[in-house]
Design a protein that fits this description.
- The chain is of the alpha/beta class.
- It is about 45% helix and about 15% strand.
- Strands 9, 10, 11, 12, 13, 14, 15, 16 and 17 form a 9-stranded mixed beta sheet that branches.
- A hairpin with a 4-residue loop joins strand 7 and strand 8.
- The two termini are about 45 Å apart.
- It binds phosphoenolpyruvate and magnesium ion (MG).
- Magnesium ion binds next to helix 18.
Length: about 575
Amino acid sequence: MSLWLSGIGVSRGIGIGRVQRLHGGELEIPEHRLAPDQIEPEVTRFFDAQRSAKEQLRQIRARIPGGTPGEIAAFIDTHLLMLDDRSLTDAVVALIRSAQCNAEAALQKQRDALTAVFEQMEDPYLRSRKDDVQHVSARILRILLKQEKGIVPAPRAEQAEPPVIVADDVTPADIILLSQQEVAAFITEYGGPLSHTAILARSFGIPSIVGLHAARRLLREGELVIVDGDLGHALADPDAQALAFFETKRARQQTDRAALSQLRDRPAISRDGVRIKLLANIEMSQDAPYAADLGAEGVGLYRTEFLYMNRRDLPGEEEQYEAYAQVVAAVKGTITIRTLDLGADKQVDSGSRRAPTANNPALGLRAIRLCLKEPELFRTQLRALLRASVHGAMQIMLPMISSVQEFRQAQQIIAAVTEQLRGEGHRVAGHVPLGAMIEVPAAALAAPLLARHARFLSIGTNDLIQYTLAIDRVDEEVNYLYDPLHPAVLRLIRMTIAAGEHSGVPVAMCGEMAGDPRYTRLLLGLGLNEFSMHPASVLEVKRIIMDSNVTELRRQAQLALAADSVREFQDRMAGFAHS
Ligand code: PEP
Ligand code: MG
């Protein structure tokens, strides 16, 4: 009999296949007391297991195929770093010695203690990082218990259909191994939209549902199941009619994807001849070919924070120079590199003075404010960036600018650093355009003034919406108020674009809104002609642009912005989906 199950759809598409359960699940941890002469050999046994775990992960990392988004290798790197993290290993060794218990029991205790710390965190992203602790501990535990074989199923016989993997949870390493064997879909009992499973499944384009709590109990090994990753539904043992319906839907999606890939090398020109620039947001140089493959013409946002994360020290000039030089050379077209945007939801371990001590960190010492307060931190990054500017077409973007004065101050520092570098005999590109992000309402209101000094502006809607509507973007309690269509937000976007039009300064958008196909027509109507987004969205947005009449959309947007009732405004907004 058919059975409908519901979870959270985290990676789109339809997957159809037979259930294959991942073995793993809860491990039975023995606990026993050691005799005094067994303690040091037990410590050695623990370190041996830790070393084997690292070796396993290194081997998996080496198997990541070329062209895979950089975030995937980064997940494995996070686990490798965690395996070396002394808050995990020192505590386990101390427990073996003080409680005279076996390594498995000591590791389990420390894992539970760290998990409890993560669970208390307010930030949902950090909270979901308790998965890392669990995954890393499970890997060592399996080695200690000699149970590491058979977690990932053996490769299928040829011609067998790809399976639907059902598991309690899947580690990033498992996903990498499984994706090389072709998988129809994933269903996991744990996890949320920010979990590794979700992020990786989206990167690999595998339809997935997480948080389907009783999946392993309700789905039988080998039974046919349909996974709808758009809606988060799974249908077990479907009848012929349901199967035919979803097969048709899957085929339509596949044709659609193939049609989209045809647009890759075509310019994004609207029906009435308006040329739109489509750019990618990337975080690592490995992402550059992936972005170009998906039709991006350059990079509109390269976030540099990753260089500062997951480490205890700050990256020096040489290390940063190498990273920037590599990414600048790898990108075809122009790359816009954003200077350090630390603080608020983006914290690092290095430097305790940057710890979130403020009551309201989103309004505190973050991004450009932090860089101006700590000139050495800023100068080191600027020296590396300016030296890398000779390797391609690069521009520098300042995050969270809230006044012309702040922009000018940064501009002067950059001029001084350029001069100093040249004095030392370094080469710096003749012209490195400097732009401002528009993320604070004050910056949008002052855009005509900023446009006198900045060579370009780029609207960061993620923060602009948070600051305009006074809602913390990572606070689940007020998520429901986060509304890109709020008239105040749209007016600020329009003001910024208008300021650019009047002064001949290009205006881009690099917040999530730019890559959301639901808003493409609206943004065209507001006059936006540079969109920067996750590479995976470029082709879909391009198709909408090629099918739009920008002149007509601009007329409609004007009417919508002039609407004098919320109702009328909403009616006009709804029209954007169909025009
Ligand atoms: C933004 O705020 O829209 C943006 C692109 O910056 P981030 O998401 O990195 O804060
Ligand atoms: Mg931002």
